Amino acid sequence: MLIRMNLRFFLQTFLTDLLRFKGTIDAGKEQSRIGFPLKFREIGTSKLRDYLKAALYELKLCDFDVVGIHRNSVKDCLQIVLINIKEEVAFELGLRQRAETQEEDQQIEEQAAAAIPETPVDESITMQEFEKHLLQYDGISTDRRPALSALGQDIPIYIWYESYPTHSGEGYEGRVSRVSADSPYGAASLNLTNIRESDQGWYECKVVFLNRSPNSHKNGTWFHLDVHAPPRFVVTPEEVIYVNLGDAIILNCQAEGTPTPEILWYKDANPVETSATIGIFNDGTELRISNIRHEDIGDYTCIARNGEGQISHTARVIIAGGAVIMVPPTNQTKLEGEKVQFNCEAKALPGNVTVKWFREGAPVKEVAALETRVTIRRDGSLVVNPVSADDSGQYLCEVSNGIGEPQSASAYLNVEYPAKVTFTPTIQYLPFRLAGVVQCYIKANPPLQYVTWTKDKRLLEPYQTKDIVIMNNGSLLFTRVNQNHQGRYTCTPYNAQGTQGSSGQMEVLVRKPPTFTIEPEGMYQRKVGETVEMHCDAQEAEGTQKPSIQWQRRDGTMLQKNRVRVNGGNITIDSLRRSDFGFYQCVASNEVATIVTTTQLVVEGTQPHAPYNLTATATEFAVTLSWLPGYSGGPDYKQDYTIWYREAGVSEWSTIPVTPSGSTQVTINRLAPGTTYEFEVAGKNALGEGMMSKIITVRTLDVGLPAKNQATSTPSLSPPEDSAEETYTVRAFIGLCDLTVCFFEKWQLDWTSAVIIIKITNQKL
């Protein structure tokens, strides 16, 4: 142990104590007062050196705690040493009386403080460093050892000093002592018991006389202690090592003992034979295997032996495998309130399998509705107790041991419960002379079977009542509302599990719906880049709320907010583009009803819109295509077409221009029989290429088979949202149109294109 002390404290204390003795030093030279540095070389007596050496040794005893003073009381120990040496030095040098007044005592302390050198004034130094600082003024060598030490150790393992307790170094307590007085060995010989392997090494015995200078080159006797010990492992490979074929591994096996142990390697009880992929290195401590093969898999044993014994350690090398689900979860149906358990058993090498569970993609522990009712057991199974109606869904088990990709399996939980009403609005409205619905908000699993209704506390029989129908979701549909439909209604849903009860009473009021006061024009025609403003407004009936007005596209496309402004019931679209072409709806809504009016926006001066209703007829070597034209871009623009086609699986497309100009039918020849092709059509006008049609896939016939229509998309007479044509062109296939539901103003045969041209009014086909 090295105790650090403050050099200023020791020097000032030492000098102050000496200066408090008034007197002179007679060294054969002129009288001089004691000062600092102590000019020991000018002091003729050798006694001062001896006492100083004795003081330093006693300071070492302070450091090693052999004077009975705790290590934390080093200051007290130093003061005792200083008092002792002060008395001896004072007697030897003839220093006489002490300072007699407080002023003299203060002067002495100031002289001592002033005498301390600047370096190293405030350093905190070790005892060894302090010894060098103090003895440099006397030329005394600091190279001396404690009574008995082991080679390489700074602290003695044993010190005997007359009149003081003995000192045992750390780790030697209770095991070292001087030999007994009647021992045939020398009186300073050491008795070491309970020998340890760490005791091996060199030992030195020194005898130090405190009243004489040490003789460094003669003082000291050296001994070497050999401790024989059986082998013990300090490094071993893991007991199980998981590898993949082709991997490289190093098995490290190191042992200590005296004599040094020999390391041997065995595989499956046979000595390891080195090869191009197997080698033993570093004095046998490393077994290296590169490019592991099946024959390298097995048990490897490391043996360490010497004259004192033998030990062994075995490591098993195993081919690693990712986790595999042995028992996957299965679909289950439970009643609300029951407990459900999904099993998920997995095996893997290594077997540190981690199991995770997810519901609809989210970890089950993070689903707020589940966290208090879900448990993942140690065997990987998932338990939900009790289940609720909202727990139905897909549950996925994912297993992994860190090798390869995680494996997963899923199962569906179907939670059944009696049909129930989830919400009861206190008031519902029906629009007078329009169709209206009284909602019954139902949740049911298994599905709803039927709903009973009451009106004014009487059972309502919708199937026997004119203008009333029960919808599939259990709500009441009134095909034409009148005042008699007003009243108080309740609904009671049923399924295979029964019912959880009726709804509360719902007050159904019949009110007039809102009406449009301003409707947009039937069509707006604008050119690209222009602005269009469409107007719409509506008013409420007496006793109802003012309707809100919104604009939307009929096809559901979102309005572009950066170019669209809605002010009240009016909508303005700036910088018109081809994509703005289509149908727009003004929607007016209040608590009674929602009414809609529709207008069409035609944007002229654009490339053609995409052709639609593309169909095909195939033979062995040709395919005939026909289509309906998209909007041409305006009345001033003529539209032509280009066919794009390719064999399925080929990246490059081939093109064929359609002739004559404007034709909507073409035949592609020189195709391979029994081959699948992809086709699409693009229109173009003077402004450039237009949008492409949807791709259809057609297979040419094998040789000898009759031709047939192979269009992959079902033909429809309904034009696309962006079509402004009033005349629709349709292939005349048998069964395409049921004449009982078609309303024609006129029809004519166009011999050039071999199609029937139909003008349709009022009803789509």
Explain what the structure shows.
Keywords: Immunoglobulin domain, Repeat. With 765 residues, this protein is mainly β. It contains 5 helices and 59 strands. The chain folds into 6 domains: 215 residues, no CATH class; 90 residues, Immunoglobulin-like (Sandwich), CATH 2.60.40.10; 96 residues, Immunoglobulins (Immunoglobulin-like, Sandwich), CATH 2.60.40.10; 88 residues, Immunoglobulin-like (Sandwich); 90 residues, Immunoglobulin-like (Sandwich); 149 residues, Immunoglobulins (Immunoglobulin-like), CATH 2.60.40.10. The strands form 18 sheets. Strands 21, 24, 25, 28, 29 and 32 form a 6-stranded mixed sheet that branches. The two termini are 104 Å apart. The N terminus and C terminus are likely disordered.
What are the defining features of this structure?
765 residues, mainly beta, Immunoglobulin-like, 6 domains, six-stranded mixed beta sheet, disordered N terminus, Fibronectin type III domain, Ig_I-set
